[in-house]
Write a structure and sequence with these properties.
By secondary structure, this protein is α+β, with helices and mostly antiparallel strands. Among the domains are: about 5-145, 2-Layer Sandwich (Potassium Channel Kv1.1, Chain A), CATH 3.30.710.10; about 195-295. The strands form nine sheets. Strands 23, 24, 25, 26 and 27 form a five-stranded antiparallel β-sheet that branches. A hairpin with a 4-residue loop joins β25 and β26 (about 375).
Amino acid sequence: MTKLHVTVEGTAFTTDKELLVKHSEYFRALFQSGMRESSRDEIQLHNLGAVGFLITLRVLDGERPLLSCDEILEAVECAAFLQVEILMKHLVNLIDPDNCLVMYEAAATYGLLDLFHESALYIRDIYELLEKDIQALPKDLIQYVDSLMPSTFVAVGAHTPTIEFLEDPSRTMCFLNEKDNQWVSLGCIPDNASTFLAGVTTLNNKVFIVGGARGANKQVVERSFCYDAENHTWSEFSSPHQLRYEVTLLGHEGYLYAFGGEYERVPVAYVEKYCLSSQIWTFGKELPQAMAGPPATKAMGRVFISLWKPQETTIIYEYDTDKDDVVPISSIKRPQSYGHYMVGHRDNLYIMRNGPCDDFLHCTIENFNLSTQQWTTLSGQYVNSKGALFTAVIRGDTVFTLNRMMTLLYKIDTCSWKPIKEKSGFNKGGTMHTFFLRLPTEIKLMASKLYKNPHQSFT
């Protein structure tokens, strides 16, 4: 390891030269230029803050620090000047209601386009909460936010492939018109698609369905499907090498990850990832144990999986997507209980587990904080009517849960979920899949017109 001494604002830092060259376009150009500076082991950076450079070094060293608004401004400046992609991604993962406007203006000032766009999308999704503060932004920044499509809550029930002429209302995918408090159909999923025990996830404003089963014998479904929300079209794509049902599917940074599942009633530990650009499935490192439907989520730009050893221990693993490795993070023991679902928010993982003595109606939520590495049990128990908590998805600081009777919204913070609003339930039987999509206005308008006049066709 070659040491490099860097002075910023009078503060001296000693770091790994190869690490800077690997992650910073600025240092790569500097040390590969052949100029006199390229052979030095001491350099001085001007017009940068020492705090921002320290944050950069921490992120390059694998840390994921939480930042104040003042620290964000310095980090954005460093990310732009030094062209550090990994720092920019970390800033994107830190966007929240408290800092999104700071992120947005800073990214606009320093030309970080990805951070600019992601901050604007976040602001668009919680527009009502920030409306007064948004008006203080420059006019062009307000116009950009207004031009974006907000996230819409979407649900689809569990159903198996059926013959084409047999009408099955459970095959419809619907979105919640929050203003009118009505569920509106986006039309049926393809005839050969299954959402029963299937892996369902979103990525790049598309819905992906992998695996699934049909019939009481759980015959595996071999075809995979994709819904493109921007043009309202369905298409097929290749299935994983190992066919399976009750597979967990997760989308992350241009890849789909398929974890575990069952094939011919035998649990499997396989992990496969699908590259959207190359359209190829490849095997990754297997899970530590075979499991059907292992809970998985994302937080702080990282992928996490929950496994268990019945009936006491829930174990959290990180799936390191860069190193293709499965790393144990923490575990928790609860008598006759284990985690059934997991959702990430900021630097927290929330694990929903059954109540005492396998009581699946009353669930307890455990919080694992990634920064402090501490577990906290949220106060009280949550009524998990028809698996509502097992479909939890988050927009901003609001949790959306769903059952046949109602859509229940919670305000989320580290130690509590507080019910804040009830909306219409989704009157479909069985398990449900929920997610957010950015639906074009014209598609939502056409679907709403069809809802009011079902004799029209949705085209």
